[in-house]
Design a protein that fits this description.
Length: about 300
């Protein structure tokens, strides 16, 4: 793995042009040298006519450094992709499509939105491991934004404009390590157990409140606590803090998240939280995961999220 820039001047020095960006992507995608995505052969010739494109010695397939990645077929330069990845990864609160459009001088809001959406897809490493050890788990609801109403879920709306979220926080010593968040359909045992199975190691100890949806959770040890009116922040301090931060972030950065894209926003929040102490390394992981993320089209991004 190549290292990563730790400041803006260093970023500028290291990525002055397309060639420098492409070389970096090559090292992230093929740390042990080129490998053909079709046949797995490891010998290829660099084409003289197309930069950073290789013809496989085994099957003759031509593969560019961005082919089959989240950057596949993009009309934007790699320099713009790198700037966007750097801004999204290193800003402590994230950056909206509108801010990105202005910062990078992009021609349209749609272009910026597409770029943000694609990078967000690259925020979930398919090889990540489940949370382990002591894990606090809780559920919550957050308001979301609709077309007519900037911030839905105001007074007297009960479940309308509310999205249900499950949250898990891994505890190491006395501090939080990694987190996971997912949209859930309801607070039933079925939904909560599915969330736990997908995000928490079966050998973990799950600490929850006494809600019946958690009984029989798919973990070795379950530690449920009956919680009085005020005690939730005492029994489950970290998951409560994470949920409070999530709500503040969703309102502040995006002025309320849209229901359709909720899982993508949750993925971004998780990405940022889990790399809060290594923001510059997060730039590299975003691009590295991007090389493992299948191409995403505009239509895929505007469709309801299949993960949600
Ligand atoms: Zn091949």
């Amino acid at each position: 793995m190549p290292d990563f820039p730790t400041s803006l001047p260093e970023f500028q020095r290291r990525f002055p042009d397309e060639d420098a960006c492409a070389r970096y992507l090559f090292e992230l995608r093929w740390p042990e040298g080129f490998r053909c995505p079709r046949c797995g052969h490891d010998h290829a010739w660099a084409l003289e006519t197309k930069a950073w494109t290789f013809e496989c010695a085994g099957c003759a397939r031509q593969t560019s450094v961005t082919a089959g990645t989240v950057m596949h077929g993009s009309k934007l330069s790699l320099e713009i992709w790198f700037w966007a990845a750097y801004l999204m990864a290193t800003h402590s609160n994230g950056i909206s499509a509108l801010q990105l459009q202005k910062q990078l001088g992009l021609g349209s809001y749609k272009t910026a939105w597409l770029l943000c959406g694609k990078l967000r897809r690259a925020m979930v490493n398919p090889e990540r491991t489940t949370l382990s050890g002591l894990v606090e788990i809780d559920e919550t609801s957050i308001s979301h934004r609709t077309k007519d109403d900037p911030v839905a879920g105001g007074q007297g709306r009960s479940h309308d404009g509310k999205l249900l979220i499950a949250a898990a926080v891994e505890i190491r010593g006395k501090a939080p390590a990694r987190i996971r968040l997912a949209k859930i359909d309801d607070y039933s045992a079925d939904s909560l157990h599915r969330f736990i199975a997908a995000n928490v190691s079966p050998t973990a100890t799950a600490k929850t409140d006494a809600w019946q949806g958690y009984s029989g959770a798919p973990v070795d040890e379950h530690d449920p606590h009956v919680i009085g009116e005020m005690a939730a922040h005492v029994i489950l301090p970290w998951v409560h803090r994470v949920i409070a931060n999530l709500k503040r972030w969703a309102l502040g950065v995006y002025h309320g998240v849209r229901a359709k894209h909720i899982q993508a926003y949750l993925d971004e929040f998780v990405f940022r939280f889990n790399r809060r102490r290594t923001r510059h390394a997060a730039f590299r992981s975003l691009l590295a995961t991007g090389t493992k993320t299948a191409p995403v089209t505009y239509n895929m991004l505007i469709a309801p999220d299949p993960r949600g």
